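Contributing new complexes? Match this layout with calcium ion.
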Amino acid sequence: AKENGKNNFQFYSSTLAIKSSRKMELEMALRKAIQHNELVLYYQPQVNLHTNKIIGFEALLRWIHPTYGFISPEEFIPLAEETNLIFSIGEWVFTQACKQKKKWDALGTPPITMSVNISAKQFQCSELAQIFEKIITDLQLNPNTVELEITESIMQNIDRSIKILNELKKIGFLISIDDFGKGYSSLSYLKHLPIDTLKIDKSFVDDINDPVHKGSLVKAIIDMGQNMNFSVIAEGIEKLDQVHFLVKNNCKMGQGYFYSKPLPKEEVEKLLLRMNDT
Ligand code: C2E
Ligand code: CA
Ligand code: CA
Ligand code: CA
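Output block (do not edit by hand):
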């Protein structure tokens, strides 16, 4: 902290230098990552909390670098946003997830949705909806089984965002608000957006086990979602008592390590084929 004076500042600035050189290296490496096939998608199951059946998957990006090893999306997505690489990465993610969904549909499994994370920065591209429409049209994929996860941060550019969201909705995509409740933005914006789903942020799901909060905010979000006719899904479920609490309070969908970590596509395929057998 600052109060320790000069020494600490030196410590801080040298850390910063290390940080920024790592950042430059990362930026160069990220530029090559797509061409070198270093980016892969993992898929986390989303389940019906009553039946435990899989209802969908969330595509989550992984960067496996030959020398740096595993690099977390928490680290490289912000960098991709800063450097505008998010536009090509975002398009790659969307295309890849849609292709995968198409393949899984062909296995003859029960209907599942595919959720794709869309960065707020991608909404700065006015052709976003047209680009996504072309991709699903080329693949002959039904848009109403593809869910786009956006965060409240798109509201920083509200007029443009609403316009693009309406275009995406008109094509037929499902729209969900990710990390819901974490953005501290006004709730009144919900009325103006074409939203299908609220995704309760993990921090609130954690609160279910908090002796003081006891999941009071989770309850409030579920109630609000019901009143406004949104689907509600809880993320970051790790414990059975959280499942019990969610079911008791009428939350029908969830995802989290309790059910499964994000899986490589081969593992998902095995899961889906097993589902077919039962
Ligand atoms: P997110 O969209 O909120 O995704 C949920 C994160 O929580 C994922 O981390 C997931 O692996 C992790 N998670 C799921 N269940 C549990 C659980 O029970 N416990 C715990 N502790 N964690 C759980 P991941 O994959 O590291 O992704 C981190 C963030 O990076 C994502 O948060 C999302 O904001 C971003 N991200 C990931 N893939 C993409 C992408 O393709 N595009 C964009 N724009 N952002 C992405
Ligand atoms: Ca997400
Ligand atoms: Ca989330
Ligand atoms: Ca999150």
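Reviewers usually confirm one structural detail per submission. For this one: Strands lie at 39-48, 54-65, 69-71, 113-117, 146-150, 174-180, 197-200, 231-234, 253-254.
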